[in-house]
Amino acid sequence: MKVSVVIPAYNEEENLPVLYERLKAVLDRLEGDYEILFVDDGSTDGSFEVLRDLARRDGRVRVIRFRRNYGQTAAMYAGFEHATGDVIVTMDADLQNDPEDIPRLLRKLEEGYDIVSGWRKDRKDPFLSRRLPSKIANWIISKVTGVELHDYGCTLKAYRSEIAKRYRLYGDMHRFLPALARRFGARVTEIPVRHHPRLYGRSKYGIGRTVRVILDIFLVKFLNEYITKPLYVFGGIGFLLLTAGILIELYLTLLKIFTGADIGGRPLLILGVLLILAGIQLLSTGIIAELIVRTYYESRGEKPYVIEEKLNFGE
Ligand code: UDP
Ligand code: MG
C-alpha cells in the first residue's frame, strides 16, 4: 500500500522543514511506500525555496507550485489529481496537525472505511472566533447532510484514493468532503487527533469564513440530494407558488364578476401576480437546471451512480 500525504502550504517557510522531518520519521516506520506532495499555493515568502531543497534531497518529496494563491481547496484538488498512492492523507503545513496521528488514521481506514476524519478534540485555537462558530457549523452540517462528524474543519483526514479522486473541488469545499462523499456511498468515520497551537506564521482565515460555510451547506445539501433532479427542487417550489397565485387571481376575478367589487387597489392582486411570475420563473429555472445537469454528466462520461461490485461479468 502506498500513502500520499497531500499538504497545501501558503507562506509556511518556518514550518515546512520541521514538518518534513517529523513526517519522514513517521512515514519511514510504515510498511509500504509513500510520497509527500506539497502544493505551494502561491507563497510569497521563502516556502518554495524550502520545498525545492527538500525535493532535491528526497525523491519522495514532490512539489507543485501554483502561479498565484488559489486557496486551500484548489491546492488540495491539485494534490489529489497528482497523488499516486492508494491512500491519500491530507494535513495542514502549519504543524497544527500531528504526523504521529497518521498511522492511527491508516489503521482505521484498513478496517474498511473510505474516509477517516480527524477530530481535534482538544483544539488549540481561540474560542470565540474559531471554536464556537466551528461547533455550531459542525452541528448544522451533521444534521443537514446526515454525515455526523464533530470536526469537519480538521484537515487531517485519510481517504481511499478512488474516493478522493472522484471530487471536483471548487470554492471552499474541501472541508465538506466527508459529506459530499455520501453521494458516492462512502463509509465515513472519525477518530480523535492531537492539535497544536500555531507556532510560526499566521492563520489565513478569520471569522469571515462563517458566511461561506453557511452558503456551502446549502450547496452540499443540493449536490448530495438533488443534483440529478433539480426540477424537483425548483419546480416543486415554483409549482406551489404558481398554484397559489392562480387561486388568488381566480378568487379576485370571481369577486369582480359576481359582486362587482373594486379589486384594483387590493394588495392581494399584487401578491397573486408576484406569485405567478415567481412560480413561472422557478419552473423554468428547474427545466434549465435539468438540462445543465444532463450536460454535466454526459460531457464527462460520468454516471449518477457508483457501483460497488459486479459478479459474473467476466472481468
Ligand atoms: N492554506 C493554503 N492556501 C490558502 C490558505 C491556507 O494553502 O489560501 C494552507 C495553509 O498554509 C495551511 C492550511 O492551508 O497549511 C490551513 O491554513 P491555516 O492554518 O491558516 O488555517 P487554520 O488552521 O487557522 O484554520
Ligand atoms: Mg492552522
UniProtKB/TrEMBL annotation:
UniProt key word Repressor: no
Gene Ontology process terms (BP): lipopolysaccharide biosynthetic process
Organismal lineage: Bacteria, Pseudomonadati, Aquificota, Aquificia, Aquificales
TM regions (residue ranges): 231-248, 268-293
Glycosyltransferase 2-like domain ranges (all copies): 4-167
PANTHER family: UNDECAPRENYL-PHOSPHATE 4-DEOXY-4-FORMAMIDO-L-ARABINOSE TRANSFERASE (PTHR48090:SF3), UNDECAPRENYL-PHOSPHATE 4-DEOXY-4-FORMAMIDO-L-ARABINOSE TRANSFERASE-RELATED (PTHR48090)
A Gene Ontology molecular function term of the record: undecaprenyl-phosphate 4-deoxy-4-formamido-L-arabinose transferase activity
Record-linked Pfam families: Glycos_transf_2
Keywords assigned by UniProt, alphabetized: Cell membrane, Glycosyltransferase, Lipopolysaccharide biosynthesis, Membrane, Transferase, Transmembrane, Transmembrane helix
Protein name: Glycosyltransferase
UniProt entry tagged with the keyword Mitochondrion: no
Classification via InterPro entries: Glyco_trans_2-like, Glycosyltransferase_2, Nucleotide-diphossugar_trans
GO cellular component: plasma membrane
Stored CDD domains: DPM1_like_bac
